[in-house]
Amino acid sequence: MPRALTSDGRRPMSTSVTTDVPSEGTVRHHPVHRSAVRRLAGVVALVAATVATSAPAPAVDPKAPAGRVGSPSWATGNGVLTLDRGDLAKTPQAPRGDVVVMQSWEYLQIPALRRKHPGITILMYKDASAVVKEAESATGRFPAGMGYDWVAAEHPSWFLRDRTGQIIEWSDWRGLYPMDIADSGYQQTWARNVLAELRAHRWDGVMMDDVLTILSHDTVGNRVSTRIPDDDAQYAATGSFLARIGPEIRRAGYLAVPNLSIEWDNWKATLAAWTPYVSGWENEHFTNWPGQDGRFSGADWRWKFDAARWLAARKVPLLAVTYGPTGDRVGQTYHRATWLLSWNGRTGASVYVPDELASSHWLPAATRSAGRPLGPALERADGTWTRRFTRGTVAVNPTTESRRVLGVRLAPTTAVIRTR
User: Fold this and answer.
1) Domain range 40-284, CATH architecture
2) What is the pLDDT of residue 179?
3) Any idea what DSSP says for residue 252?
4) What gap in Å lies between CA 319 and CA 332, rounded to an integer?
5) Could you state, in order of their start, the residue ranges of all structural domains in the chain?
6) Using an 8 Å Cβ cutoff, are 344 and 313 in contact?
7) CB atoms near residue 167 (< 10 Å)
8) Fewer C-beta within 10 Å: the chain N or C terminus?
9) Whether pLDDT at 288 is above 50
10) What confidence tens digit (pLDDT) does each residue in 57-90 have?
């Protein structure tokens, strides 16, 4: 997703590299700061769109309810993000969680998910800021609000261009072309198309990816848009989009859950300004940058934790997403425990997305439950945190030194979830 600033104001190095691939087809390779469109070419046999019209609106299922108004109540604090082909089939435990985010063409999975968990929240993935050249071969559905070819034929002015007129393409995720999201026509079309898909089946809402507060993506040829040339312009454009789209989705009875690119120095002002527009938030890279060594510690851990606590105190759901290897149980426990420290026991979910394509998305260390919180998280003098739950205790050491907590020695940036 976005490149982030470090706590001292510097942008980290290597923000556009991808993870190393040991063998072809075994590992999801997502850019270090790229959001969850991941591996579009591998999702359900995507092919290039061949018509210059947007996909027709799906027929409305008369048995499908309008959706949910307001904030859902999520009892386990767990969820899954299943955007690649076969993810749901490899994750039969998905209905055990509170929320599933999946691609629009996976709607055939909705009845089975609801039979197994009638209260589950099912969100459709849509990119808010960009279009792609691919469509799903059988249905013509897009992982965005519309298709590239339709925009090129009907509204080419919506493409962001540089001063020579060249269309901007993101280089950290080739094939995605950012739009002028402040354009009222783009906003209207995005909302109309997404609402038509939500109404066609029993979706609860939409997860809106690439809701950017800064120019988070590098571009092919380092091209700079004339309409959104800097971070301030990006922030204003995104604010315009959310102010219109979020309330429109919610008025129609659906959840609007953007994937927000907050940073260490803008998270509180951004959440305060934009939360009234939406039903909740997703935030990626909750406890680490994937593909880079180390987990967040110190100030970098603290601002992520504080943002999660800020939302929990206001009963605003947060999907806290971390990416990493299936075998990294230490990282999964650190992610889950950090989330549990912030959780209000009713809203939001922690989500761990494994790198490996063959892996289930329901991993024991990443989904472990300690029950409901019995009180607030407590910070100790040595920089560690603990919290009591109805069925256990959680301890997190976000420092760079080993600490003794709950009778055990915790290495730097590790955690323990003790259950009874």
Assistant:
1) Alpha-Beta Barrel (3.20)
2) 98
3) T
4) 15
5) 40-284
6) yes
7) 16
8) C
9) yes
10) 344 343 444 444 445 668 899 999 999 989 999 9
